[in-house]
Amino acid sequence: MLLAHVQQPVSPAPQDAPAEEPAPAPVALLEVKGVLAAAERFPWAVAAPRTRHWPDGGFLDVALSTVRTEEREGYIERLEAFVEHHRARLEELLHAYGPGSRPAEFGRYALVGQPETLVLLERMETVPFLLRSRWDEALEAVLLADLEFAWGPRICVSR
After folding, report:
1. Measured between alpha carbons, how far is 29 from 27 in angstroms, rounded to an integer?
2. pLDDT at 17 over 80
3. Where exactly are the structural domains of the chain?
4. Which of 56, 110, 111, 143 to pair with 96, CA 20 to 30 A apart?
């Protein structure tokens, strides 16, 4: 066996490593401030700042983490189209569950009326399971479950 190993032909010399290809162009990043500013342009879908339940919507990062690379370019325009398309439904949501409503008096539906919630609702309609998995990793599940109930999505992804 040793003799057979010694008699094997020598491996060819390793070829030079191919030159590295240039890095792909950077993907358009979503600027949180830009998305938030776009959401705040719809006063009929968002509660007044002094009546909002959540002073700093830290949940926006979770929602934006579900925006896939190929969706990033033009996302703000798609968000604006979503809000315009669902205007009546959003107005009803804010009236029924937003600050000052009966259900909100009990501390539920805290996300309704936040500008960031428009992103959550758009993501809920677009990628509900991805949103739920990212949310469950970072935030309290009941907040999203309440929003799902109030919005009445096509698919309920709550447990």
Report:
1. 6
2. no
3. 27-151
4. 56
What's the pLDDT at 159? Answer: 52
Burial class (CB in 10 A: 0-12, 13-18, 19+), 17: exposed
Q: Would you say 64 and 71 are in contact if contact means Cβ atoms under 8 Å apart?
A: no
106 CB neighbour count, 10 Å cutoff: 7
- CA nearest to 135, candidates 79, 67, 61: 61
Tracing tokens 């032909």 back to the chain, one arrives at: 9
The pLDDT assigned to 155 comes to 57
